Amino acid sequence: MANKTFKKKQKKPFISPAKKLFLIILLLPVSVTVYFGVFLVWDNLNISTLFQREKAINIQDHFDIEIPEEYIPIYISAGEAYEVPWTLLAAHHRVETRFSTMEQLISPAGAEGHMQFMPCTFVGWNHPTCSGLGEGEIPSDEKTNPKIIEKYGGYGVDANGDGVADPYDIEDAIYSAANYLSKSGASDGKLREAIFNYNHSEEYVEDILYYFHLYEEVGEELVQLSFNHS
């Protein structure tokens, strides 16, 4: 019986190589478009943030030192809590420590922290060690104790609720300044009197008022930018 050779019949490809190449060329622009669309949506918040930051910089371009963006919500919150203009708090921060950019946050006279409180003003002048300019000899564990501060009638505030009122903590310092200025008359519109109580110098008062009015000119815009960014 003769041997028969059978050739296996090859299946034709579902899509020819030429068609594959055509589809790849056709779909490539679509893929690129989809990719960049997703990327732009994903990155939209970052683009918005950059835009808002650039706008804030433009608003402040005539300031000698820009108000750091991260401090504005703290000024606003503290100002609302004690009914004082947030721009006044910013002015004090600018004059006292150049927005906390000084190498040491302690003065030769002994004023401490971001907003330069004398220890006796922060803890309270009724403390038994307080006299003179107000440096006192207050133990370190009492300097930041809210109960001790309340006992001796100080202006220090535990703003973030961590159980410590610390003039070297930015939130505590700004809230404490707001507290002091408010009780000195700022909440009643007596800004000059309140500023003078903060530092008994007419030159100091004029410096604070200069920056206060400067910041007031663009205050609403900075508040809007701050809320949009947050």
TrEMBL record:
Coiled-coil zones: none
Signal peptide: none
Domain Transglycosylase SLT, chain residue ranges per copy: 151-189
Keywords: Membrane, Transmembrane, Transmembrane helix
CDD domains: Slt35-like
Pfam families in alphabetical order: SLT_2
Transmembrane segments: 21-42
Name the record gives this protein: Lytic transglycosylase domain-containing protein
